[in-house]
Amino acid sequence: MHFRLPARALAIGVFLLFAIMVPRAQQPDAAAIIHSLDAENQSRFENVLSFTDVEHYAVFRGKEQSRPAAEMTVRMTYKKGIGKTYEILSRSGSTLVMKYGLMPLLENEKAINNPAKLAQSWFTSANYDMKLKPGVTQTIDGRLCLALAITPLRKAPNMVDGTLWVDARDHTLVEVEGIASKSPSIFAGTTHMLRRYTNMQGYAMAIHARAESSGMLFGRTVVTIDYSDYRFDLRTAK
């Protein structure tokens, strides 16, 4: 015996089946995203032999957010196997903020980029527990991004407990935001951090960073860093 469904019921059934299957097919693959982040970091390490940029640091204190208490512009040079060095191009403002704020910040960047420790600061599965936030998206600089909740596997001033945003198309790093898992000094309290990236030469490179904290020495302090004028020396493809 053969039964014939009414055309309207058949259409509804097909629509419901399509509605169930399509979202599943479009769900991003968390494992693939994390693998891409791991692979990108390793590729950058292997293929970027050196690069330079110009970095502008500004420190704002208390409620004064229109005029920095101190500023510094530096030329940073990274060389694989050596790390980072800095040439100060200009500086102005509070000598106290310069001595206890900006100069230690540069020294910390040198320490993080010590070849023996460099991989410990990467946003990879070796350093973070990463979980995709289903359905959470945001457009950043015109790029549709997916969100990953990240939790450091150890506590350090440069390790962020928060959210990693990756390009939905190619899974490259776009932005990280959250709280430093460990205070950078005894003078600083909880530090809220943000760093934004853009794609240069096929690699995610920082273009802007912001850190805000409240501490005993300086009170409420905001530090911004703007990165520009990148120049690369890349490994030649064989």
Q: Can you offer a commentary on this structure?
A:
By secondary structure, the chain is of the alpha+beta class. It has a single domain (28-227), classed as outer membrane lipoprotein receptor (LolB), chain A (Clam), CATH 2.50.20. Helices cover 24% and strands 47% of the residues. It contains 3 helices and 10 strands, in the order H-H-E-E-E-H-E-E-E-E-E-E-E. It has helices spanning 7-26, 30-47, 95-112; strands at residues 48-61, 70-79, 83-93, 128-140, 143-152, 160-167, 173-180, 192-200, 203-215, 219-234. Strands 3-2-1-10-9-8-7-6-5-4 form a 10-stranded antiparallel sheet, covered by helices on one side. A hairpin with a 5-residue loop joins strand 6 (160-167) and strand 7. The longest helix is centred in the first third of the chain and has 20 residues, at 7-26. The termini are far apart. Residues 14-25 have low confidence and may be disordered.
